[in-house]
Amino acid sequence: MSQLPKQPAETSVPTSADVARLAGVSRATVSYVLNNNATVRISEPTRRRVREAALQLGYVPHAAARSLRAGHSRMVLLPSGHIPAGPLHQYFFEELQSGLRRLDYTVVQYGSVGLTADEAATAWAELRPVAVVVPPGIALTPHGTGILTRSGAKAVITLGPGPVAGAHGLVMDQRQVGASAVEHLLARGRRHIGVVMPQEPGRVPFSEPRLIGARRVAEPAGARVCPLPLRYEEESARQLAARWPELGLDAVFAYNDEYAMLLMRALQDAGVTVPADTAVIGADDALIGRLLRPRLSTVRMELAMSQPLAETIDRMVQHPGGPPVHQDLLRTSAVHRESS
After folding, report:
1. Would you say 306 and 263 are in contact if contact means Cβ atoms under 8 Å apart?
2. Per residue in 48-105, pLDDT tens?
3. Among 184, 291, 299, 305, which residue is least crowded by beta carbons within 10 Å?
4. Mean pLDDT, rounded, for 127-136
């Protein structure tokens, strides 16, 4: 007769009372220390003793209970999806998450692939975040903003090419990127300019405004702009390079440095000399672009913020209800190197 395997004894979950007993303090003191409450004066030796006791016991504060006491969660939700992973965005989100953690917020990333804009907003709202930061490339509608605020979100912030009604908007106007690239090419006498339009998902919110910015600068100068669909594949670049003589282009803004490197290699393989026959400029100022031969010209992008975004979010949470704030963050400048 077979026997079921013996089940392990249920492990008791350490509580704040256990931490208090081990540290020799009250449960209120444990709460003040582990919740980083700065309004109550507690000596550093006591704080250290409480933290050491919590570490020894493996005690973790209960986020839901803390939210009930505070009247709202400490969760900041960052939806994720087809977000271009450029160095500027990577640095920005790393700084945001570390800043929020220092302010005692819990940062949660939520996959939104396959959901419509309003379905995604509803799914985010189910988690009852105190703030939502919607990155570039992920859609949010005014209706979705209303869903989030009615669920208790005190701050809904979008980062992208344009603002969304009802939400705070940190605008990264991608038209400036295309404008800076074409201004650079015009200054070097180029008048027949291709603009690469990536065919990968999630690039459209960036590529279309960059094309608009390029045209806005080119048209008054009498220059021609030609959109160039391109997949991030060697074969797609090879096919485009094979058509280069019939296109009659003397320059190309290749969306970013990755597409610029892909296309520049294909052009060189097709016998097109860079920059003599065609000038090439990318965007993002990636280090590898400086290691190419010829070195890649690029558009450098920087964010101009009066204070870190984590502190801005904390202020919005502490003082909700103000009118939506829209701030233009993106600053661009062309960097001239050998490829143009």
Report:
1. no
2. 999 899 888 888 776 656 655 555 578 899 887 655 556 677 777 888 888 888 888 8
3. 291
4. 88
Residue type, 31: S
Angle of helix 87-102 versus helix 309-318 axis, rounded to 10: 50
Residue with token string 């393989």: 269
Cβ pair 133, 125 in contact under 8 A: no
> pLDDT band for position 241 (50/70/90)?
very high
CA–CA distance, 32 with 53 (Å, rounded to integer)? 14
The CA-CA-CA angle for residues 327, 332, 334, to 5°, reads: 175
Q: Residue 4 and residue 333: Cα distance in Å, rounded?
A: 70
Distance CA 251, CA 239 (A): 17
Asked if residues 297 and 282 have their Cβ atoms less than 8 Å apart, the reply is yes
CA atoms within 13 A on the CB side of 314: 16
Show Cβ contacts of residue 251 under 8 Å, excluding neighbours closer than 6 positions.
185, 188, 190, 192, 193, 194, 278, 279, 280, 281, 340
**Strand ranges in 275-314 using DSSP code E only, listed in sequence order:** 279-281, 298-303
Provide the 10 A C-beta neighbour count for residue 279: 21
Q: Summarize pLDDT for 269-287 with one digit per residue, the tens.
A: 999 999 999 999 999 998 8
**Identity at 144, one-letter amino acid code:** G
Looking up tokens 């000596």, which residue turns up? 43
pLDDT greater than 90 at residue 267: yes
Q: What is the helix (H) or strand (E) element at residue 270, kind and residue range?
A: none
